[in-house]
Design a protein that fits this description.
Elements lengths: L1 H16 L3 H6 L3 H4 L1 H4 L6 H17 L1 H11 L7 H23 L7 H7 L8 H13 L4 E6 L2 E5 L3 E5 L4 E5 L3 E11 L9 E10 L7 E6 H7 L19 H13 L5 E3 L16 E3 L28 H11 L12 E2 L6 E2 L4 E6 L3
Parallel strand pairs: 8-12
Antiparallel strand pairs: 1-2, 2-3, 3-4, 5-6, 6-7, 9-12, 10-11
Helix pairs in contact: 1-6, 5-7, 6-7, 11-12
This protein binds zinc ion (3 copies).
Family: Belongs to the TMEM129 family.
GO molecular function, one term: ubiquitin protein ligase activity
Main location: membrane
Length: 358
C-alpha cells in the first residue's frame, strides 16, 4: 500500500513542480488554481509575479509534509512517522519565515523586486520601475515566448524579461547584448521536413551588477522575436541557423520559376505589394495544357490571370506554401489561386517578369 502511495505522490509532486501540457490545458497549475488570489497579470505584471513566486515557493516547500500526511491518511502506522512529520513540517515553516523576509521592509528582499532595484534612479522607488514595466507589459506589441511549462521570455519595447518559478530576470534592451551560444536540431519526421532547430541565447548585460541569463527558443520563435529587439541576436560564425520549412520551400520554388520562360513587360516594375521591399518580378501566365478529355474531372484546371506584375517571387512562394495541403514533398505539384483575381495556376504558369529593353 505505502509503495503505491509513494509512487503516486512522486508522480503528483513532479506534476506540481513541472506540470505536463495536459495539466496546463486542464488548468491544474499553481498560477491557474490561484488565479483569483494572484489577480490579473496584464493589469499588474510585477504584483502578479511577486505573489506567484511566493505561493509557488510555499507550495513546493510543503510537498514533503504532504507526503507524510498522505501516508497517515493511507493508514500507515510507523513509529517513525510522527518524527518524520515534525521534520518535514520544519521546511514550510522555514520557508514561511523566508517569505516573510521577502515581504517585509518594503519588499526589497523579494527576488522580483531585487531584479528591479538595479534600475531604480536615485531618489526614486522600485515601484516606479515596476509601474513602467506594468505599462509596457500591457502593450499589445510585446512578444511573449513560452520556454517550457514553467518559464517564459517576454520582450517589451525597452525590457527583456525571463520569468521562472521563483524569480524574474529583467534587463533593459539598450543595456544588453543577446548572443547565440549553441544550437540543436530535432527531427520530428523521418524525411526531415519537420526539422526543428533550437537556439540557446545568452543575455549579457553591459552592467556588471545585473545578472546574466540564458534561454532556449526555437528558430521559428526567434523570427517572431527579432522585430521586437532593438539589436539583433548576435550569431557567431560557427553557429548556423537553419532556414524554416517555408524558407526552404521558397528557395526551391524560385529555382523552378527561373526555369520558366521570361515574360517581358514594357512598364517599369513596381514594388511587390506583398513585402513592399523587392520589385515585383513574377507574372502568372497560363502555359500548361488542359488535360486530355478522358482525364477531365480531376483537380481544377488553370485559368489565365490578367493581373499586372504585382508580386515578387518569394511572396508568391510563401502564398503558395501557405495554401498548400498535404506533405511538403507534394506542395510543388499542387495548384494555387492568384492572390488578387483567384485564377487557378500551377508552377508552370509562374513566369519571371523582366522589363523589355527598348
Ligand atoms: Zn514580395
Ligand atoms: Zn490574377
Ligand atoms: Zn497551369
Amino acid at each position: 500500500m505505502d509503495v503505491l502511495v509513494t509512487l503516486f505522490y512522486i508522480l503528483f509532486s513532479i506534476c506540481v513542480v513541472y506540470p505536463p501540457t495536459e495539466f496546463v490545458s486542464a488548468g491544474f497549475t499553481i498560477a491557474q488554481l490561484f488565479e483569483s488570489f494572484l489577480g490579473s497579470e496584464n493589469m499588474n505584471f510585477i504584483g502578479y509575479h511577486m505573489k506567484r513566486t511566493t505561493i509557488t515557493a510555499l507550495i513546493h516547500s510543503a510537498l514533503p509534509l504532504g507526503y507524510i500526511f498522505c501516508l497517515l491518511c493511507a493508514g500507515e502506522r510507523n513509529p517513525w512517522l510522527p518524527a518524520a512529520a515534525a521534520a518535514t513540517a520544519i521546511i514550510p515553516l522555514l520557508m514561511c519565515y523566508r517569505l516573510l523576509c521577502w515581504w517585509e521592509n518594503d519588499q526589497v528582499k523579494h527576488p522580483v523586486v531585487k531584479a528591479l532595484i538595479q534600475y531604480v534612479t536615485p531618489g526614486s522607488d522600485w515601484r516606479v520601475v515596476a509601474a513602467n514595466l506594468n505599462i509596457e507589459f500591457r502593450n499589445v506589441d510585446k512578444v511573449s515566448i513560452q520556454l517550457n511549462a514553467t518559464s517564459r521570455f517576454v520582450a517589451t519595447e525597452t525590457w527583456l524579461i525571463k520569468l521562472t518559478q521563483y524569480k524574474l530576470n529583467v534587463v533593459k534592451q539598450e543595456e544588453c547584448t543577446l548572443v547565440a551560444t549553441a544550437t540543436d536540431s530535432h527531427n520530428l519526421t523521418p524525411t526531415g521536413e519537420d526539422e526543428v532547430q533550437y537556439i540557446n541565447i545568452e543575455a549579457i548585460p553591459t552592467r556588471d551588477d545585473i545578472e546574466r541569463f540564458t534561454f532556449r527558443i526555437s528558430t521559428t520563435a526567434l523570427r517572431d522575436l527579432q522585430p521586437r529587439l532593438l539589436q539583433p541576436v548576435r550569431v557567431p560564425e560557427h553557429i548556423s541557423l537553419m532556414p524554416t520549412l517555408i524558407e526552404r520551400f521558397v528557395n526551391v520554388f524560385k529555382h523552378y520559376v527561373d526555369q520558366n520562360p521570361v515574360y517581358l513587360v514594357d512598364q517599369e516594375l513596381e514594388l511587390c505589394i506583398g513585402c513592399m521591399q523587392y520589385p515585383a518580378d513574377v507574372k502568372l501566365n497560363r502555359r500548361c495544357h488542359p488535360p486530355p478529355a478522358h482525364l477531365e474531372g480531376g483537380p481544377p484546371q488553370c485559368q489565365q490571370c490578367n493581373c499586372r506584375v504585382l508580386w515578387c517571387c518569394a511572396c508568391m512562394g510563401r502564398w503558395w506554401a501557405a495554401r498548400a495541403s498535404g506533405p511538403p514533398a507534394g506542395w510543388l505539384s499542387g495548384r494555387a489561386t492568384c492572390p488578387v483575381c483567384r485564377a487557378t495556376f500551377c508552377l508552370l504558369d509562374v513566369c519571371p517578369a523582366r522589363l523589355a529593353s527598348s
